[in-house]
Amino acid sequence: MIQVFNTLTREKEVFKSITPGKINMYVCGPTVYNYIHIGNARSAIAFDTVRRYFEYRGYDVNYVSNFTDVDDKIINRAQEEGISEMAVANKYADAFHEDTLPLNIKPATVRSRATEVIPEIIAFVQDLVNEGYAYEVEGDVYFRAKKFKGYGILAHQDLAEMEANAAGRLDDEETARKEDPIDFAVWKSQENPDVISWPSPWGNGRPGWHIECSVMAQKYLSDTIDIHGGGIDLAFPHHTNEIAQSEAHTGQRFVNYWMHNGFVNVDNEKMSKSLGNFTTLHDLLANYDDPMAIRYLLATTQYRRPINYAEETLAQARAELDRIRTGYRNLEFRLTSAISGHDNVIDQEVNRQQQAFETAMDDDFNAQNAIAAVFELVTLANTYAESDTVKQSSGNQLLETLQMLMQIFGVDIVETQTSLNPEQKQLFDDRANARKSHDFQKSDQLRDELNAQGIIVEDTPQGQRWHKA
RNA sequence: GGUAGUAUAGCCAAGUGGUAAGGCAACGGUCUGCAAAACCGUCAUCGCCGGUUCGACUCCGGUUACUACCUCCA
């Protein structure tokens, strides 16, 4: 039984998919006008981890996400750089794929772009107009928020309050056009031939921000989907408006479980584009040599909690991950001289911790409790590796479990296989011989030499071993 | 102003009506020719003030601080 915190009800609810064994989920992707920042990465990782856990639990997950590839920011960027809107979108969509690869984020089952569903968007908007949920004003089409019963409940916003706030904020021109200040655009007029636009029944224009997600979720999934995810800031207005559009359109419930990830903060302050205090993943990866540590940090914090990002927290995450890697390596090496068979005590403990992991993750993806079970396995691996007799089967099972559980977080703890070059191999063997003949001066010198080449040599009761620094 | 969230050791962070998981760092010890790694051990009374209770960090009331959302934003 998996429990999921549903933003709509603000409660943990027992998760039940519409179709047994299958999950349809939609996650809001980035606007591709720049490299994604750590906050975007966190969102992608949070839902990738959710997806991986559901898959581990045997679900077939249909994961749909989008790229918003046409909006004001992209248009501005295109004009600044003197290139087309699509060139901007393509560049940063490619960068997204490139940068998320080292973070081990699984590709979406379907990754759609807004501009790929323009006909569907226009048809959707037309229907809203026909049904009286939307109206046209000089080429713009607005959604009548008030006509949709229950508008704002996702974010628990009070309509009257919103109205008061919206009235004071919007520029007069746009407010004047709308019937009501809280109405929002589903289609935006664009008659300037230098700016990208599509012909529509209301003249040339482009989609409003929220409409693409409603359209894609319906097109690639269904009228009612199991899970819709995104950053907590999207609850209002984006998801609020999606609900209004979709439910007005289909008459069906749009989403069963709304999941929202918490923010990444910098120095305890929100990281945002307007504050300019964001770090792009692109830059971070360029200056950091352990992408798995980034994944570890972002995946092992419960998805709804804020993460305070700093070099120090990343370093701490890396230290934790190193402990897991080392434990894995310790037992892996020990297994080279293990005997066949298995130990019931070990097997049972491995099983127990795996269950603890599942219990934790079942509880709204409580990653911190899950990782605690992983550390129990690490300690078990280390103590087992030090025992006099190690059985192949149990040792292997322990390692496989450790690897599998970390893979749910998208963290690969098995270092890629490398080998010593012939010279290093010679130094390594010479050192073993020097130690055998108690020539410690020489053996220490050889160890230093290898160390200088990034090869760490360690002695164990089973002989010396090495790994990369 | 409205609506939410958070406050647990030097740091990160679980948790629950019955005397505080896990990790990082630190310190002590074991192991080691020396290291490294590992292992063992030490390290908090849970923002503040009241209340309920046999008993609260956990429930209730109040209070303080920080953060977020209220049409740029993951």
TrEMBL record:
Sorted UniProt keywords: Aminoacyl-tRNA synthetase, ATP-binding, Cytoplasm, Ligase, Metal-binding, Nucleotide-binding, Protein biosynthesis, Zinc
Annotated positions binding Zn(2+): C28, C213, H238, E242
Pfam families given in the database record: CysS_C (PF23493), DALR_2 (PF09190), tRNA-synt_1e (PF01406)
Motif stretch ('HIGH' region): 30-40
Entry coiled-coil feature ranges: none
UniProt remark on cofactor binding: Binds 1 zinc ion per subunit.
Top-tier EC class: ligase
Cited CDD domains: CysRS_core
Name this polypeptide is given: Cysteine--tRNA ligase
Gene name linked to the record: cysS
